[in-house]
Design goal:
Structural class: alpha/beta
Strand content: 5-15%
Oligomer: single chain
Number of helices: 14
Radius of gyration: 20 Å
Helix content: 40-55%
Distance between the termini: 64 Å
Largest sheet: 9 strands, mixed
Shape: globular
Length: 292
């Protein structure tokens, strides 16, 4: 049978394309139909709706924006849910609240399906290159069965234990990413405001111990004032909200995350919701202007 893929957004489309190009028999659906055309050209079948995906595929990958979109695709909360997921393996690759994923797993299993949590670390460029890192959680037999399927999309997969450990791992990794990129934006603003040559600033950064694939990509975007989206401000805000909620629930302090959350909120208020996360430099610039 085909493998199903629902959700062809900024990340989902290149991920699904890598599957299609690897000769994986694929049936896809996306709410905005135009996003499916690249998959059709790559040889995937395009379904008329989620129901057709589940009719044709035993394993269905979901790369959707949030719990509401997932529930809608699965018919969760309606009489159709049980018949939709029974006998299927649901591979949930989006980023949701850990408690939501725990509840979804329980409902899928109660209906006779299997559930694998598989959020990914990486943004648009790694998604296009098939270089994402997947974190897996669920029953070991289910995750072992799914793991080979993720090969065309991910350079590595890490088993994290039971649900929702994969999402908690994703939030932990993203906390570091968000604070790191925000720090890089502030450092770039500081260097530029001191009249330094920003190309030299990047050269020093790249030559030193703090250099990484993220710093190289994001520093180049900051210097070029390239705010084309790889990881959007709106997505960073949502992930920050999920991290903050998980921290509060566990009574964990998150001081750096809290500052970043405020800055990304200020960036959204500047009308940059759809810009890349490095656009947070505009919020830092506004704070500088306000302080003068």
């Amino acid at each position: 049978m085909d493998v199903g893929f629902i959700g062809l957004g900024v990340m989902g489309q290149p991920m699904a394309l890598n599957l299609a190009r690897s000769a994986t028999p694929l049936v896809v659906w996306n709410r905005t139909a135009a996003r499916s055309e690249a998959l059709r050209a790559a040889g995937a079948a395009v379904a008329t709706g989620p129901a057709e995906v589940f009719e044709r595929a035993r394993v269905v990958i979901l790369m959707l924006a949030d719990g509401a979109a997932i529930d809608s695709a699965l018919g969760r909360g309606t009489p159709a849910f049980g018949a939709t997921v029974a006998g299927h393996t649901i591979v949930q690759m989006g980023t949701t609240a850990p408690d939501y994923s725990r509840g979804l797993e329980a409902d899928v299993r109660a209906a006779g399906g299997s559930y694998v949590e598989a959020p990914v670390s990486g943004s648009l460029k790694p998604a296009e290159a098939g270089q994402l890192v997947a974190m897996l959680a669920g029953e070991q037999a289910d995750t072992a069965a799914v793991r080979p399927l993720l090969g065309p999309m991910c350079r590595d997969t890490v088993f994290c234990g039971p649900v929702p450990n994969a999402l908690l791992m994703k939030l932990s990794v993203n906390l570091f990413l968000i604070t790191m990129v925000t720090g890089l934006a502030e450092a770039t603003h500081f260097a530029g405001s001191q009249g330094l040559d920003l190309d030299q600033f990047v050269a020093v950064l790249d030559a030193g111990p703090m250099a990484s694939s993220v710093s190289r990509v994001k520093a180049a975007k900051l210097v070029a004032e390239d705010f084309a989206v790889e990881g959007a401000i709106s997505n960073v805000l949502e992930v920050s909200r999920l991290i903050a909620a998980a921290a509060r629930k566990s009574q964990i302090a998150s001081p750096l995350l809290d500052v970043c959350f405020a800055l990304y909120g200020e960036t959204r208020a500047l009308g940059l919701d759809g810009a890349d996360m490095v656009a947070v430099i505009h919020a830092i610039e506004q704070r500088t202007l306000s302080a003068r």
